[in-house]
Design a protein that fits this description.
Layout: H1 11-16, H2 18-24, H3 26-38, H4 46-66, H5 68-80, H6 89-98
Amino acid sequence: MAEAGGTPPKGAVLMSASKYIARSCKDVNKAFMECKAKDLNPSACLKEGEAVTECLLKLLKRLHTEAPEEFNSYVKCMDYHSNNLEKCRKEQAILEEKCPE
């Protein structure tokens, strides 16, 4: 998991958390995308981008707190299978049982 100034999360972490991200960070992601659609200047939407990052980091912390073994197992499966969700349905179901959306 990335902390401020740390290593960003790997793709497998983001893929494994994607359903949770879609729900938990929906509003801040929407605000960021609307800002980017209005202004292509990269510095125009820094505040919105920071809100997305903050939401994601809080969510990953929650997943690591509430279901550390289940989340890590799912991430490892996704990483091993190149983010092929179909190969990791068992791990996904275990995580979702432990930590419903």
